[in-house]
Amino acid sequence: MPVVDLSLAREQLLSLLAERSAKTGDFVLASGRRSSLYVDCRLTTMSPEGQRLLGVLGLAAISDAGWAADAVGGLTLGADPIAYAMAHASSFAHERGEGPLVRAFTVRKQPKQHGTGKRVEGPFVAGDQVVVVEDVITTGGSALTAVEAVRAEGGVVLGVLAVVDREEGGREALESAGLAVRSLATASELVARLAR
User: Fold this and answer.
1) Tens-place pLDDT, residues 118-155
2) Domain-by-domain residue ranges, the chain?
3) Could you give the CA distance from residue 19 to residue 1 in angstroms, rounded to a whole number?
4) CATH code, residues 51-185
5) CA nearest 10: which of 189, 195, 154?
6) Which end of the chain is more exposed for a tag (fewer CB within 10 A), N or C?
7) Which of the residues in the chain have pLDDT under 50?
């Protein structure tokens, strides 16, 4: 994977999110709130182009935040492609001597009722320094659920990284819970692009 111009990559990500993931209208969100903006990040995060961009931009964001993460992940399903993209990109960066390998994990919404009954799946181990990833932050509830699950299994949460911050109080809720938050894009940026 070649070295990427991060400013250009961010512009490309914003364009993809605006074109594929952001819709205007009248929507009921997972939080139960009504909104004139709906963001389905999966239309971007599960695409080849989105995966490439999220991997490098996600790694750059956690590096800029000073988070030396062993692993990244969050509540399934929204966090999964983001974590996988970042883990994949870390292998290329590591080969170039530009950073450590970062493992991905996923947090089940409920512990499985068979086998080991784990809630955090993947190569996660107690003591890992973790960044919780999220596709969209609205209230912060999904990220907080993931944080609680990770901490219950012995992980140390460094912060939360979202693809899109809806700017509806979720960031503030996470910060008031003592969590540092970074985002790759904001709802206002997407709305501005949709208005063009």
Assistant:
1) 899 999 999 999 999 999 999 999 999 999 999 999 99
2) 51-185
3) 25
4) 3.40.50.2020
5) 189
6) C
7) 1
